[in-house]
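Deliverable D4.2, example record:
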Amino acid sequence: MTVYTKFSDHFRESYKRNPQSFFCRSVIRLSRLIQPHKIFLQRTMQPYKSFRYRRAFQQIVHTAPRPCCPQANCEIHTLTSHSHVFMYLTAIKSFLRFFDGRQVAVVVHDDGSLTKRDKELLAQHVTGMRLIEKRQADEQIASYLHGFPLCREYRDKFVNIIQLFDFFLLSGSRKIILMDSDTLFFQKPFKIIDWIESTLRENLVAFEDHPKGQKEFLGALGCDFPPHICISLGCLHKDLFDLNLIEDVLNKALSLGDWDLWTQQNIFPLMVHKKLGEYQALFLDKNKYQAFYYPTEKGVVFRHYVSSTYFSRFDRHLADAQMILAQL
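Output generated by the structure prediction step:
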């Protein structure tokens, strides 16, 4: 357990007992002083975080390769980076161990930082996977976004927006699973397996109690879909994707302020809502598929750690990963 994690736990317990204590008030004052420098501090910490991620998860290279099926009618897409390669391999192997290699294809999107060695490791450990390199993707997506200037501008602004555009536009199947690198599967995901094999017209999405800005975003745009979608995990039909809708939403969103990383996630409820006449939208059980909070240890199928944003969760992520690695 890191010093940061111990301190965070101590603060939470102290705040529950007496939020007005000298200790709690001092921490809150300090956090307010630090807040204007948050981005600088995050960038300063990034090399250390990258080193810890790679070192902590590198045991995955000693586990057996897992096959996938490039011809499957369902693809699982993930955007990953040099820092997260070992973390991603742990996540995807925790998922693939519950499949026979024929049900799902694996697609990895390079954020531009993957090295030659990273790419070799990915191909070696997930046999049959498809890697989409950043330069290749940029060229292909440019043609798709011709005539959609706001979409093109938004994708160019943040590398993470690959999850919104590239996952759908570069998919070769009609069913798409979205999965983040900082995730793990603990048990066989029967709900997802049923969705892959079913002909039912359903979209499955992970539930988050309070995804950042989603309630306000949807309210401002007049959408009454429940504001609880987290794109750390989702099972979606490709024809959900709507460039005209996204261009229109981005235009309206400018009146609410500039776009940010969370705008992407908050667009998904709008796309799901528009297709409700064609597809039923179902939230995955938040106790089994834990997208942000961990309400229970019993019956957990999936967990998202938000490690890139909340470094305090790293210890929990690593402890769970060690358990999974022992099973692979």
